[in-house]
From TrEMBL:
GO terms for biological process: rRNA 5'-end processing. It is found in: Cytoplasm. One of its GO terms (molecular function) is hydrolase activity, acting on ester bonds. The lineage of its organism: Bacteria, Pseudomonadati, Bacteroidota, Cytophagia, Cytophagales. Keywords: Cytoplasm, Hydrolase, Nuclease, Ribosome biogenesis. The keyword Cell wall biogenesis/degradation does not apply. Its EC number is 3.1.-.-. It is an enzyme of class 3 (hydrolase). One of its GO terms (cellular component) is cytosol. Gene3D superfamilies: YqgF/RNase H-like domain. Belongs to the YqgF HJR family. This is Putative pre-16S rRNA nuclease. It comes from Marivirga atlantica.
Amino acid sequence: MARIIAIDYGTKRVGLAATDPLKIISSPLDTIHSKDIIQFLTDYFNKEDVEAVVCGYPTNEEGEATDATRHVKVFINLFRKKFPNMPLHLQDESFSSQMAVQSMIAAGSRKKQRMKKSGNIDKVSAAIILQQYLEEN
């Protein structure tokens, strides 16, 4: 069965998450440098059956574009050029990073673990974005 993956795009790091094959649970997958995202996705699509991608779309409290929105739009255009047959869904990512920090605190992770350069917050944020998408759809 095909998975759905989520992308929390940032100009430095990209958080990734994936569903289980039954598309019930979202789990953090990896954090990579933003320059490596297209190659990562190419490799992942070649080894895993993926039916769709969900990309976090940043907006402010009023639902308007933010400074980060411009960068995400550039990535979305690149994604659509490189993977024209892969369905791409946008998901509001408001407060996903704050929710990621709170869930990591609730799980007992220390500040050093949360802020680790590997970007734990980024991949947990991607998992939250994906879980919200699953719940809404």
